[in-house]
Amino acid sequence: MKIAVIGAGPAGLYFSLLAKKRDPSHRIQVFEQNPAGATYGWGVVFSDVGLAFLREADPEFFRTFVAHHERCDYMEIVHRGTHVQVHGNHFSRTSRIDMLKVLEDACRAQGISIEHGRRIEDVSKLASEVDLVVAADGGNSAVRTQFAHHFRPSFEKRRNKFAWYGTRQRFHPVSLIFRETPHGVFIAHSYQYSPELSTFLVEVDPDTWRRAGLDRASEEESRRYCAEVFRPELGGNELLTNRSLWFEANIVRNDQWSYRNIVLLGDALRTVHFSLGSGTRMAMQDAIALSEGVASHPGDLPAAFAAFEAQRRPASSSFQAAAARSLDWYENVAAKMHLDPVAFAYDYMRRTGQVSHDDLRRRDPHFAAACEAMACHERTDTPATA
Length: 386
Ligand SMILES: Cc1cc2nc3c(=O)[nH]c(=O)nc-3n(C[C@H](O)[C@H](O)[C@H](O)COP(=O)(O)OP(=O)(O)OC[C@H]3O[C@@H](n4cnc5c(N)ncnc54)[C@H](O)[C@@H]3O)c2cc1C
What we know:
Layout (H helix, E strand, L loop, with lengths): L1 E5 L3 H13 L4 E6 L10 E5 H10 L1 H8 L3 E10 L2 E14 H14 L3 E4 L6 H7 L2 E4 L6 H5 L1 H4 L1 E15 L6 E8 L2 E9 L5 E7 L1 H6 L7 H11 L1 H4 L4 E2 L6 E8 L3 E2 L2 E3 L13 H19 L4 H31 L9 H9 L7 H7 L1 H9 L2 H4 L7
Parallel strand pairs: 1-2, 1-7, 2-6, 4-9, 7-15
Antiparallel strand pairs: 3-5, 4-5, 8-11, 8-12, 8-13, 9-10, 10-11, 14-15
């Protein structure tokens, strides 16, 4: 098959790699609008569950993929300056740019052509020249917009403001830092992703953001402000910027996932809460499912798309629902700030309704015992199981 892939993000590249490995006769060309080596963002993080999918899909590539990851098996919730550790939460981190390079190198080694600096403007023309177009063109997908009448996308803009920063302060565990200021609550999602650097994503509700004057602040002024809010955790290190502008989460869904010989993949298809890198994981799981659909139904795109959708739609919807509950928790965190650090951490761990008290006991008996001693599990309003 002749396959055109729009977008050299994790979805497009991983799909290309798996599809070509499954059927080396495919001729795959990836088009990427950005020049080689250009990327936004800092690190990406995978839970052990996310990694298990990648290991199973391609054990050989998996070894290369994780070779330079930073790992840690606990996380920290920092509230009122107290660091509460919760063990049994395995996270593997890497820089986005390194991850894309590993993917690109693996694709090229399989004979996949990647053309950088080439933006696809007319997907209809491209679709008429190839057998399959994979639109892995990200959250602002132009392909989805061009055929919006068919894909019928919906958008849900969430209220909190976010800015992605980096820092040389090394946050070895994934660390969620909550800080009460005279203007309101600021949250930092931070984790080390290379020997020198950590991601530092700042989240704040719009009222606090305005009261703090951040609606009128430049990128540099915002950076300095946020660094001072989190000075106790940053120590002598500064926040680093890379197009670190304030933005809101825009949750995307699509009624239809494919149109003629065009299929949406990754963020173009659906976005989830990005604070813990689940967007990257979901994009790569999409790639696995689409490559399997194509391999299982040679020459039959409608059947391949149906198999892809049957596998991914339920998982996608349930993940989006859990992510929405997590977003709700963050958006209403001010009402939780009175909790003492252990009770607060407990409430955080159970925010999606997908982690039960027994799950926590299995993961970290010491933490569960501390919560039981304080009767946290009787006090929170989070559902017991989901
Ligand atoms: C500002 C920002 C920062 C982020 N930072 C992080 C982070 O640090 N950690 C993390 O885990 N997640 C981060 N995310 C989320 C994460 O990037 C996505 O969930 C994940 O990358 C989805 O993968 P994808 O391949 O579907 O899309 P993307 O990674 O967005 O890749 C899509 C690619 O398509 C290209 N493209 C778009 N249109 C065209 C076109 N017409 N022609 C050719 N090429 C095109 C784009 O340049 C891009 O390279 C960030 C998101 C945003 C918006």
